[in-house]
């Protein structure tokens, strides 16, 4: 297989990626919420603020366990 061109991607200059254990969070200057994914790429949800990330992850873990 030959790669002809790189896939277009959004510039990361206005975004910050961070880890919370096995979770990845995306802080984007263009939106007010914080996007949260598992390290495998599964959607966890949107936290209303950085202070709400732990609550969102706790709710996700409790929902997955059931």
Number of helices: 1
Measured as a percent range, the helix fraction is: 10-25%
Q: What structural class results from the helix and strand content?
A: alpha+beta
- Whole-number total of structural domains: 1
Task: Give the spatial strand order of the biggest sheet.
Answer: 1-2-3-4
Q: How many strands?
A: 4
Mean pLDDT: 85
Strand fraction equals 25-35%
H/E series: EEEEH
Q: Main β-sheet: number of strands, strand sense, barrel status?
A: 4 strands, antiparallel
Sequence stretches where pLDDT stays below 50 over 5 or more residues: none
State the shape: flat
Describe the structure.
The protein is built from one helix and four strands. It has 66 residues and is α+β, with helices and mostly antiparallel strands. It has one domain. The longest helix is centred in the C-terminal third of the chain and has 13 residues. The termini are far apart.
Could you give a short description of this structure?
The protein has one helix at 53-65; strands at 15-20, 23-28, 34-38, 43-47.
Question: Helices, strands, pairings?
Answer:
Elements: E1 15-20, E2 23-28, E3 34-38, E4 43-47, H1 53-65
Antiparallel strand pairs: 1-2, 2-3, 3-4
């Amino acid at each position: 297989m030959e790669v002809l061109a790189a896939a277009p991607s959004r510039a990361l200059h206005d975004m910050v990626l961070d880890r919370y254990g096995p979770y990845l969070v995306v802080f984007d200057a263009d939106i007010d919420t914080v996007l949260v994914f598992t390290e495998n790429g599964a959607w966890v949800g949107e936290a209303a603020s950085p202070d709400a990330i732990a609550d969102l992850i706790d709710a996700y873990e409790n929902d997955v366990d059931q």
